[in-house]
Specification:
CATH architecture of the largest domain: Orthogonal Bundle
Helix content: 40-55%
Largest sheet: 7 strands, mixed
Strand content: 5-15%
Strand order of the largest sheet: 3-4-5-2-1-8-9
Number of helices: 24
Radius of gyration: 29 Å
CATH topology of the largest domain: Hypothetical protein af1432
Structural class: alpha+beta
Distance between the termini: 81 Å
Number of strands: 15
């Protein structure tokens, strides 16, 4: 690229996240190149020199090339102006300085020169290197201008403060930026839900995702993003008795899941975020008992499709997975509190299926009591439940349960057309297997079917 810049007589720079991550010592396979001139012509020349295929996006004035595992994007330096009603800018050709001014944060506005004679020099007009060392998220321009022009930058600020933080250095958004976000929060309404959801997904995959949701709350953005989560805030007190602060508990569970989730399962993290979403709707104070949240698991699961729809999240199996985990998240805990019977474990395995391990991880993360003795006791009982799950699964093969008795078999055996009776007989056999009255095999299921069919007056026709 340096050779190409010399041959074409243009100034070229690596800019943005790649430069930032170089100083942070983080690996980065995404390299943004800005050229004072045509980014498309520059990309074409670099592609020819390296023998690499280049993809062109002429509507955006950008080009993309893959080279030895890196994804390199080329663009001409530009300056931008915005209208109040849109986050789509009016773009004009510009200089490197113009391009750096339009960047979201000082730490993302740093550039490395690729030109001969200044190769590798840092171009940092806004003190990004100092902000990076101090752990500061700051906009190059007045934050009201930056966030009003493109409100998505408010969510990006929060994502960077979350993702870049380490135990040694916690990144913080400067006070004037936080104040600006509170003023500009309503500007989020001009954004597409897809762009918002993309940022939320990235936040959830951070090592400590709770920080993002706390910052969104502090900045006044949460009611515009996920009002159902805002509804979890606060503690109500009656007769001197208050309940657990559900918002803080939810974020603690989310962080617990993130710490235990080595597979970076985004949808498991969504389930953790939404697992108690139904509590405000069912919250009741019962004299002599205290606060109850009966049925919040079922109510919460029914809220998941609406939340996914509002955020334009997928409504396929991913949504169904989150809905199922929210619905079932109390079941293993109930087994801890009650006697762990084979029947209860069979039903849990049947309902959870292949997601049982993720459900158990979520339920384990849901133990956030400040009482060490209670935590020790619940964790010990939880281990008993997990052992029982292993034993019952090995013995009864319930996890991917298939009824040994099919509707076709019943119709053939008794000469029936499709009707409710067939479903009732199949359900009777299924319940008997889950209760442990018969084994999960065809022979015992068939004998029970014939016995029940005779009771209701069915006669075999073969």
């Amino acid at each position: 690229m340096s050779e190409t810049a010399s041959e074409l007589g243009v100034r070229a720079f690596a800019i943005g996240g790649y430069v930032r991550d170089c100083f942070l010592g983080r690996p980065s396979g995404d390299i943004d190149i800005v050229v004072e001139g045509s980014g498309l012509d520059f990309a074409r020349a670099v592609g020819a020199k390296t023998g690499s295929k280049v993809s062109y996006f002429k509507n955006f004035g950008t080009a993309m090339m893959h080279f030895k595992g890196d994804e390199i994007e080329f663009v001409g330096a530009r300056k931008e102006s915005y209208s109040r009603e849109s986050r789509k800018p009016i773009v004009e050709n510009g200089t490197l300085e113009d391009d750096q001014l339009r960047r979201d944060f000082t730490i993302n506005a740093m550039a490395f020169s690729l030109n001969e004679g200044s190769f590798g020099e840092l171009v940092d007009p806004f003190g990004g290197i100092r902000d990076l060392a101090a752990g500061i998220i700051r906009t190059p321009l007045d934050p009201d201008t930056t966030y009003s022009d493109d409100p998505l930058r408010m969510l990006r600020a929060i994502r960077f403060a979350t993702r870049l933080s380490t135990p040694e250095l916690e990144f913080r958004i400067v006070p004037e930026s936080m104040e600006s976000m509170r003023r500009m929060a309503s500007r989020l309404e001009i954004l597409s839900k897809e762009r918002i959801a993309e940022e939320l997904d990235k936040m959830l995959l951070c090592d400590r995702p709770s920080r993002a949701w706390r910052l969104m709350d502090e900045a006044g953005l949460l009611p515009y993003i996920l009002p159902q989560l805002s509804a979890l805030k606060g503690v109500e007190t009656v007769d001197g008795r208050g309940h657990k602060e559900i918002f803080s508990h939810t974020l603690a569970v989310l962080d617990n899941v993130a710490a235990a989730d080595s597979n970076q399962n985004l949808w498991l993290r969504w389930a953790a975020l939404l697992h108690d979403i139904g509590k405000p709707a069912v919250k009741r104070f019962v004299p002599g008992t205290g606060w109850t949240f009966h049925g919040h698991d079922l109510v919460g699961s029914r809220m998941v499709p609406k939340i996914f729809t509002s955020l334009r999240l997928p409504l396929d199996e991913k949504m169904k997975y989150v809905k199922k985990l929210v619905w079932l998240h109390m079941r293993p805990i109930a087994l801890v509190d009650d006697e762990v019977t084979d029947s209860a474990v069979r039903r849990l395995l049947f309902d959870a299926g292949d997601d049982i391990d993720d459900l158990m991880l979520l339920c384990n993360a849901d133990i956030t009591s400040k009482n060490p003795e209670k935590v020790r006791r619940v964790h010990a009982n939880f281990e008993l439940v997990k052992q029982k799950l292993v034993e019952v699964e090995a013995k009864d093969a319930i996890r991917n349960f298939k009824n040994p008795i099919t509707g076709d078999y019943i119709m053939e055996l008794y000469g029936l057309e499709p009707c409710n009776t067939i479903g009732q007989l199949k359900e009777y056999v299924k319940e008997a297997i889950l209760d442990g009255r018969i084994g999960n095999n065809f022979e015992e299921a068939d004998a029970l079917l014939r016995e029940k069919a005779a009771e209701i007056g069915l006669k075999e026709c073969r």
